[in-house]
Amino acid sequence: MIALADCNNFYASCERVFNPGLKNKPIVVLSNNDGCIIARSNEAKVLGIKMGVPVFKVKDIIENNNVYVFSTNFALYGDMSSRVMSLLTDMAPETEIYSIDEAFMNFTGVRDSVDLASTMKSVVAKCTGIPISIGIAKTKTLAKVANYFAKKQMDKGVYLLVEKQQIIEALNKLPVSKIWGVGSRHLRMLNSYGINTAYDFIQLNEEWVLEKMTIMGLRMQRELKGDSCFGI
Predict the structure, then answer these.
(1) Catalytic residue among 94, 102, 163, 211
(2) Quick check: is 206 catalytic?
(3) Alpha-carbon dihedral angle through residues 32, 182, 158, 4, given to the nearest 10 degrees
(4) Model confidence pLDDT, tens digit, residues 43-79
(5) pTM, 2 dp
(6) Which of 138, 137, 163, 164 lies closest to 150, judged by CA?
C-alpha cells in the first residue's frame, strides 16, 4: 500500500501558523513579482478566485471580501516543509518527498493504514500547525486519487481507496484533468475524444493510450487499474 500526504493549501496554511487570527479568513499568496495568485485558502476558493489568475483581475473580489494578500515567503515555506517532512519520515516505514508539500510513503506491511495516517495527521498538526490530507491505495496514481477525496473530507482528512466498487465510483467522479500526470495538451486531446472522467480513461484500449500518450500515459492507466508501475 502507498500513502500520499499532501499539505492543505500549504502556503496559506504557513501564513496562518504565524497569525492564528487568519483562521477561517480568505487568504491568497502571490507569485514572486506579486503578479499572479499561486495559493488560496478554502475561503478564497469559495469566492471564485482561481489559481494562477493575475491579481488585478480579482481586485474587486479581494477588496469587497477583505481577502488577505501575501507576497511569497519561500524561506518560511521551505522551513515549514522541512518540519512536516521530518515528522512524516520519522513515522513512515519509507518516504519519498515528492514536492515542497507532498510525500509518498510506503505503507506495505502496516497493520492499520488508516490508524497510522490519522496519527500522522494529528502529530503534524500538533507540532507544526499545518493541516494535511492523506490518501491510501495500492499504487501512487490511485493514492493521488484517494488524496483528492481525502481533501473533501476535511473532518477526517484520511481516505482509504481499496475496494473494487469504491475505486470504480471514485474514478467515475474524478475529472480526467485531476489524473496525476495529465497535462493541458493531453487533457484537450482526451476531451476531444469524449474522455471526461478517470473511469473513461481506464476503459481506453492500451495500444491507443500508448500511441497517443507514450509509455507514461500507459503506466498512468495501468496504475489506475491497480497495477503498480511507479515505486517509492
Answers:
(1) 102
(2) no
(3) -70
(4) 999 999 999 999 999 999 999 999 999 999 999 999 9
(5) 0.89
(6) 137
